[in-house]
Design a protein that fits this description.
The chain is mainly beta. Helix content is 12%, strand content 45%.
């Protein structure tokens, strides 16, 4: 045998001969490389689920703030030894006429804005995302009119989970989708719909509780 380390690790348990310094010896222990891989695979398998979608809608109510609750009780679980958290990777939003999704959104008299927000706390009005820690995402629809017709419509997103490196991790059992209009539109109220692409992740009880408290 050559005077060098000839140790192989084809399986989790190794019983191969190794030569080091001219003295052969048999290795009968768990291969450390394989053990590391096993642990790594186990962590990755437990850490994330396949992605899935959560859908929600809220209807505007003229210029009065409106809100709907999104129940996450089937996904988020703060357990004693291990917890399950929800990570939002992407969010898509659309605006449709509340009476008929085929109808056009229209305002002729004045410039208008329809704002929406997704928060971890229940709200009574649109809030500032830069100072309110509960904001997960927000955006709005700007409608510009010249007094006789709608001349321009702009869909603007202020905060989006896909803008962050790892999305947004959620540790609460409810999210709240709220909306408000600056003035009533000629075409009437809107239905604001969102679709969230999510995965589930495991976490320790201490870290998940800390996250949940920070979002309540």
């Amino acid at each position: 045998m050559p005077r060098e380390l000839a140790w192989k690790c084809p399986s989790r348990y190794s019983a191969n001969w190794a030569v080091h310094g001219g003295r052969p010896r048999q290795i009968k222990r768990i291969c450390p490389v394989r053990r590391f891989i096993d642990r790594l695979v186990a962590v990755e398998t437990m850490a994330k689920s396949d992605s899935f979608f959560i859908r929600a809608e809220v209807d505007t109510n003229g210029t009065t703030f409106a809100q709907s609750e999104i129940d996450l009780g089937s996904f988020v679980n703060l357990g004693v030894s291990k917890s399950t958290l929800l990570r939002i990777h992407r969010l898509a939003c659309n605006y449709l006429d509340a009476a008929d999704p085929d109808d056009a959104i229209n305002e002729t008299a004045t410039n208008s804005k329809v704002g929406w927000q997704l928060t971890t706390q229940s709200k009574t009005a649109i809030v500032y995302p830069g100072s309110d820690k509960s904001v997960v995402s927000c955006g709005g629809l700007d409608i510009f009119a010249d007094g006789t017709r709608t001349i321009f419509v702009n869909d603007a997103t202020g905060v989006n989970p896909q803008e962050w490196t790892n999305g947004t991790l959620i540790g609460v059992d409810s999210l709240f989708l709220g909306c408000e209009m600056s003035n009533s539109l000629d075409s009437g109220d809107l239905t604001i719909g969102i679709v969230l692409e999510c995965t589930l992740e495991t976490a320790t009880q201490a870290s998940s509780t800390a996250l949940a408290l920070s979002q309540q």
